[in-house]
Amino acid sequence: MFLxxxxxxxxxxxxNNLQTLNSGTHLFIDDALIASKQGVKRVLHPCVKHEAPVxxxxxxxxxxxxxxxxxxxxxxxxxxxxxxxxxKYRMWYMCRMGPHWRFKANEIPGLYVPRPDRNPSTYRGKxxxxxxxxxxxxxxxxxxxxxxxxxxxxWTKPNLGIFEFNGNPNNNxxxxxxxxxxxxDDDELDSQKxxxxxxxxxxxxxxxxxxxxxxIRWHDSDYLEPVAQRNNEGCFNVIYDxxxxxxxxxxLTRDKDKxxxxxxxxxxxxxxxxxxKPLEPMFRATEQDDEVGIERYGADRAEIHNMSGFLxxxxxxxxxxxxxxxxxxxxxxxIPVDGPxxxxxxxxxxxxxxxxxxxxxxxxxxxxxxxTYDTGMIMGTATQPIIKDDEIHWYYTGTEHTHGAAxxxxxxxxxxxxxxxxxxxxxxxxxxxVETVPLQMPNGTLEINADASDGQMRVEVLTADGQxxxxxxxxxxxxxxxxxxHHRVKWKSAQLVNAIQPLRFRFNLHHTRLFSFRxx
Length: 520
Known about the structure:
The protein is mostly beta strands. Residues 1-14 have low confidence and may be disordered. The chain is 2% helix and 41% strand. The protein folds into two domains: 19-45 and 425-519, Jelly Rolls, CATH 2.60.120.430; 48-420, Tachylectin-2, Chain A (5 Propeller), CATH 2.115.10.20. Strands 2, 3, 4, 29, 31, 32, 33 and 34 form an eight-stranded antiparallel β-sheet that branches. Strands 5, 6, 25, 26, 27 and 28 form a six-stranded mixed β-sheet that branches. Strands 7, 8, 9, 10 and 11 form a five-stranded antiparallel β-sheet that branches.
């Protein structure tokens, strides 16, 4: 007698799980569209990095250096985009000077408000700006700077002449937000407000909204009051969700536990200028995060340091920066806790309830080897990636040091992480089957994004109750035998437009990696 081990393959033949699909791409990051699978494994794919930083602090730009024995930093709490109307890639990144009481304060009239000492918030005897808004703090000198590129790899920092830095107008400073979410609004009737920006401003310790005709020259005179209530620095990453016609913001804050752990809160608004809902807790470190930190780094605990998230086809994708606290940081007035930050892929069906893709917490942007520019932390990503030419490009902040390093050891740069289109996660199999729930979808063609270069892949079309439809059997399907991002599935004598709906797809994988399918 011969005994064979079989994987259990369960098919639920009913319409309770019927899904209505629009045209477009559908991922396999979760099981929302999967009724059953056999012999397949969900695999997370860490990025491929550009070999060198794409943006570094320039020693000749004192606004990108904190001062003598201070940090050198270009930091991406902010936006990158390919602006088709402008014909270039564009980036709004952050620098920081100060605190000035350690050395002679820099002068940036109109933005920076150095204090004569640590209190009160005054500048040459003034306690408010020209509009009457009281200064709260700006002794650390957050600066929003601008860079642009023709290819997304080689970036220039143009001398804009908007603000003087110590009397010199040759700089790329455009404002002073602690992270800048920038949008081009082609529906805006007023060309002077074509570009819009939102972020935390340390001068008033709150979130403000500004407009611009070009994304460079910003004006705040029409929006003098804060548009959202917040009093702490850190990421305030805003994206537009065209599925719900909402702006969503993910903000760093502190929890109420004994360690005041960093966590992410959430708010939303129909417009950038508000009204924004009150911030509410959204994403915290879990006991499993603590366990990973203990096992991997000997950490005391885990905290969520930053997060970006956006709608990617049929699901929300995000990258959370998890800080594993290993001990105290540098001296007073520097950084209180030390530890690495790992970039973890998270997903959500609604933009609010998030979970990790990989239970092992495999970093989606791995930190570099010892001695490289991002060996210490992946300390934040752009608000969302740029998707162009069948690739995903996500810019991020990388550091040589861990979180608690002394100021003179702190060096932050901006790197580039890349994936193939839809390439965050795949279903992999030597011999496997994936069957969808019943689908009601528009008439069209079926495309798959898969790597079958070491085998082959075929697709069957089933009825809602799981029977193979005539003309759409395994033998009828012309197999994919290569690595292809846009493979149009064909059958010998049948066309998908003639299939009976609702329908199911049965993907048959032989030495294949399946990333997504698309109704075209």
